[in-house]
Amino acid sequence: MAISPHTKQYLLVLSLLSTAAASAFIFSDDAERSSRGDLFREILRDEAVARLDELGKVSDADGYLERTFMSPASVRAGNIIRGWMEDAGLRTWVDQMGNVHGRVEGMNASAEALLIGSHLDTVVDAGIFDGSLGVISALSALKVLYTNETLGKLRRPVEVIAFSDEEGVRFQSTFLGSAAVAGILPVTALQISDKSGLTVQEALEKNSIQITEKNLLQLKYDPRSVWGYIEIHIEQGPVLEWLGFPLGVVKGIAGQTRLKFKISLPSSPNAQLQVTVRGSQGHAGTVPMSMRQDPMTAAAELIVLLESLCKNPKDFLSYDSHCNDITVESLSSSLVCTVGEISTWPSASNVIPGQVTFTVDLRAMDDLGREAVIYELSKQIYQICERRSVSCVIDRKHDANAVTCDSELSSQLKSAAYSALKKMAGEIQEQIPALMSGAGHDALAMHHLTQVGMLFVRCRGGVSHSPAEHVLDDDVWAAGLALLAFLETHM
């Protein structure tokens, strides 16, 4: 796919900025590494990087990467991944939510299974590593075992899942794939429509996958059959690069709430489904400033309020039994709030808008603190709307509680990462970093099924959801080698 001159320039700047940090962890000489048979460069690095590049070209758009739930490119990507699963000696199938599975039974098919996964869908104008890296690293590690004829020596079944949807781009509902496997996807999700009016159920049927409410419920795995779930993912942040480490263990995932605000005329349809601020539409040249009920200026004040509250929560929150020093301290270090979408009606330069809609994405590591922020935000929003003679309704579109990764799984992943980096670089003086994730991942859904653990991989500049997303080839190698070391503890 073609890359714009602007993107090329951005990539060059990021490369220059990140050179010092990226070189803080220097691997030993290539020739020395290649001579050691326990590093499996050809599979874990060269082939894995080539596969990431190949998958990055599977897109529904010309000139940029876009691959959404059950789109033609998504189906093609699933078929490619299924072929790579078979290349690693796995038995494969596609379930009725479009998830692609590859499984080896090991020495005891009745034992609890280890699940490894990530997603194959992307955002619009995406990078090639988000989601795909986790799937390909898993398949590379298993292919090493298959090539060495040790795959059958695993003492428990291992199953890799390429989830059909995590980003939620097409149907505005995240984790369609992993939530189905975890058993938390409501049957009503089948009737959610995309912008063209096609439902989730119809999108699946269009690809010859017949799904009903009954067999959606049957997709849930029996918790007694699952030992745990692990996921490898790019960090989507700058911490590992700043620390100079290729890998880090994830301690937990931030809880998340998404709100939708709609500021509109009293006659606006569907106001009860959104946060609505109602004003009065009028001519831009004839309505005096003192007589306006302008939802746009109200929205602007609300957005600035949100920024102030999230930058300095301690200045806004009241201390009580649910909000104490520990909660406020957690919010001060982890709370992030984003207005990512805004639209107006009728959206004309000479018309005072009658309706403004905007979204709020609010994330924090402390669930009680997140609720305290939402309460305070809502209270102040209603006060501002009343003062401006407009009305507001707030709709919560999405909620997910914070997840703490399993301590034993995290310890095992930390040891595996240390082992891999030691093989690649020799002696390591520092501990493997432990990080919190501000981004949601399939592990957030899988936590409802089983214990979860995650490994982060350094990405340049912390950039993600962008064609500028980049992971060093050696860091791809390190991720695969760490997962291989983890799997070998289950042999």
From TrEMBL:
It is found in: Endoplasmic reticulum. Its EC number is 3.5.3.9. GO terms for cellular component: endoplasmic reticulum. Residues 1-22 form the signal peptide. Its cofactor is Mn(2+). InterPro entries: Amidase_Cbmase (IPR010158), Bact_exopeptidase_dim_dom (IPR036264), Peptidase_M20 (IPR002933), Peptidase_M20_dimer (IPR011650). It holds the Pfam family M20_dimer. The keyword Coiled coil does not apply. It catalyses: allantoate + H2O + 2 H(+) = (S)-2-ureidoglycine + NH4(+) + CO2. Keywords: Endoplasmic reticulum, Hydrolase, Manganese, Metal-binding, Purine metabolism, Signal. Residues 271-381 form the Peptidase M20 dimerisation domain. Its main location: endoplasmic reticulum. One of its GO terms (molecular function) is metal ion binding. GO terms for biological process: purine nucleobase metabolic process. The keyword Transcription does not apply. Belongs to the peptidase M20A family. NCBIfam families: hydantase. Involved in the catabolism of purine nucleotides. Can use allantoate as substrate. The sequential activity of AAH, UGLYAH and UAH allows a complete purine breakdown without the intermediate generation of urea. Homodimer. This is allantoate deiminase. It comes from Carya illinoinensis (Pecan).
